[in-house]
């Protein structure tokens, strides 16, 4: 049901009151860096943690190797609607920068995104919002692939949050594994709210 002008005015009045409310925020705790986890082989840990949450990682020497590995996946070979934000690795069939309405991306088969760095302790990748013509590209595609430099990895989230302070985008997100839920009958379902499968390509020449 379409909201009426009265509903819109009431909602805006509530938001305006919230914005004028001053909330005292306690200071963040100091982190003892000597007690923060570090990994001797962070890449190996990242791959292991990503697999635990349903993702799959591939180590490749060159961006040219990404397409070859994707071609081994049936659902990529048959895909017709591909948005690539990493054109040096994979050429796309849709130019998302020419799309004004994100709803037009509802039938995208694959999004190929660029990751800035990896986090070993939880198998996540930071995506800078400036690389996304539309935020929804990470979540609306049936399948997601992320290309990330092998040299760009941190051990833990404390280090990760220090890294993202240097990014200027108003939006960014940590991505790890395909979407999943087990709310219904305690049965695990992958791809419930986002991509069915996540492929991560750790590239040596980026």
UniProtKB/TrEMBL annotation:
This is Lactate utilization protein C. It holds the Pfam family LUD_dom. InterPro entries: FTHF_cligase-like_sf (IPR024185), LUD_dom (IPR003741), NagB/RpiA_transferase-like (IPR037171). Coiled coil: none annotated. Residues 104-203 form the LUD domain. PANTHER family: LACTATE UTILIZATION PROTEIN C (PTHR43682:SF1). It comes from Stieleria neptunia. The gene is lutC. It comes from the Bacteria.
């Amino acid at each position: 049901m379409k909201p009426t002008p009265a509903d819109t005015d009431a909602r805006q009045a509530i938001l305006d009151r919230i914005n004028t409310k001053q909330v005292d925020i306690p200071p963040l705790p100091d982190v003892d860096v000597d007690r923060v986890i570090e990994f001797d082989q962070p890449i190996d840990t990242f791959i292991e943690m990503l697999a635990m949450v349903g993702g799959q990682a591939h180590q490749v020497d060159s961006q040219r190797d990404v397409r070859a590995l994707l071609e081994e996946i049936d659902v990529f070979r048959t895909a017709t609607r591909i948005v690539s934000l990493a054109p040096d690795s994979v050429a796309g069939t849709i130019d998302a920068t020419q799309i004004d309405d994100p709803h037009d991306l509802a039938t995208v088969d694959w999004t190929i995104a660029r990751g800035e760095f990896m986090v070993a302790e939880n198998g996540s990748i930071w995506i800078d919002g400036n690389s996304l013509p539309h935020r929804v590209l990470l979540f609306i595609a049936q399948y997601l692939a992320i290309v990330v430099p092998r040299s760009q990895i941190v051990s833990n989230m404390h280090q990760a949050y220090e890294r993202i302070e240097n990014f200027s985008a108003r939006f960014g997100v940590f991505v790890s594994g395909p979407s999943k839920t087990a709310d219904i009958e305690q049965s695990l379902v992958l791809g419930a709210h986002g991509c069915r499968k996540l492929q991560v390509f750790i590239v040596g020449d980026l």
